[in-house]
Amino acid sequence: MPANISVRKTVKDSVFTNLFGEPRYLLQLYQAIHPEDTEVKETDLKTVTLENIFTDSIYNDLGFIKGSKLMILVEAQSTWSSNIIIRALEYLVNSYRRYFSDNNMDLYKSKKVELPRPELYVIYTGDRKTRPSEITLSEEFFEGEKIAVEVTVKMIYDGKKGDIINQYVTFTKVHDEQVKLHGRTRKAVQEAIRICKDQDILREYLESRESEVVDIMMQLYDQEEIMRVHDIEVAKDAAIRSAVETYQECGMTFFEVVKRIAERFRFSMEKAEKEVGDYWEE
Fold it and tell me: What would the mean pLDDT of 6-20 be, rounded to a whole number?
């Protein structure tokens, strides 16, 4: 793989899902969240929603159940947004839906279903500043007004020194530092991994799955560049549509509009004719 292939924009999210897809690290995550539970074992935890690391929809969320009483949903984010709460609510509903399906529960029967108690967390890896310890749907969107559905998301920033959350957050910060030095390149990935292993940060995970981690963090096409080009194309399509509609409303003929579009967007006459044809209203 060439050295200049760019890193996935969602690199930390992909490592997040891959890391906690392993039962022993999932157990460590649970223990970091619930240190009072000293009896829990790997077999007590069951992943219910762990999305594929290569998707671009929900790609940094993890849902798991402890026994049948507790459902924990964790998301990792590097940018702050109140929309975290909406995503958490959506993710909770989807997780419950899968839980009901997996356990053959019928919500339309009179018997009350058993519902595991939900806990929602966000591991925030960005600049903390003066961020709160938790955020709620009512406070963020409805000025504290009592609403029909309340959602509370607990925020985790650094974890406790040495625990798996702290190691993951530290990994993301080391990665960000290397990106500043080397750009979104393979070298930045390799240096981040080297530094973390030297500092005993996720060392066992990185040593046992280093090549996989590098593969996860790299991709053939720069995802950020793909999205940038996509956004440009969407904006251009909107501009062409608007121009065609405006010229047509001004009474120009189809041929006149084709000529104008060709000149304005530097198209060939053939391409301009096709573009105008897509938006021309008879």
Answer: 64
**pLDDT, tens only, 210-230:** 888 887 777 522 455 555 666
Cβ atoms of 40 and 86 closer than 8 Å: no
Measuring CA to CA, how many Å separate 183 from each of 3, 84, 180, 191? 12, 28, 6, 12
Q: How far is CA 121 from CA 43, 273, 282, in A?
A: 22, 53, 54
Q: Do you know the residue count of the chain? A: 282
- Rounded-to-integer distance, Cα 179 and Cα 198, Å: 18
Assigned token pair, 139: 């406070």
Structure tokens at 92: 């909770």
Residue 80 near residue 124 (C-beta atoms within 8 A): yes
Long-range contacts, 49-55 (Cβ 8 Å, 24+): 49/73, 49/91, 49/94, 49/95, 49/98, 50/17, 50/20, 50/21, 51/17, 53/13, 53/14, 53/17, 53/18, 53/216, 54/14
Contacts of residue 62, Cβ cutoff 8 Å, sequence gap at least 6? 16, 17, 20, 26, 29, 47, 49, 50, 73, 74, 75
Query: What is the pTM for the complete model shown?
Result: 0.72
> Do β-strands 61-66 and 117-124 pair in parallel, antiparallel, or remain unpaired?
unpaired
pLDDT tens-digit readout, 48-60: 865 544 344 435 7
Return the structure tokens found at 8. 């996935």
Instruction: Take residue 137 and report the two structure tokens written for it.
Output: 């749907």
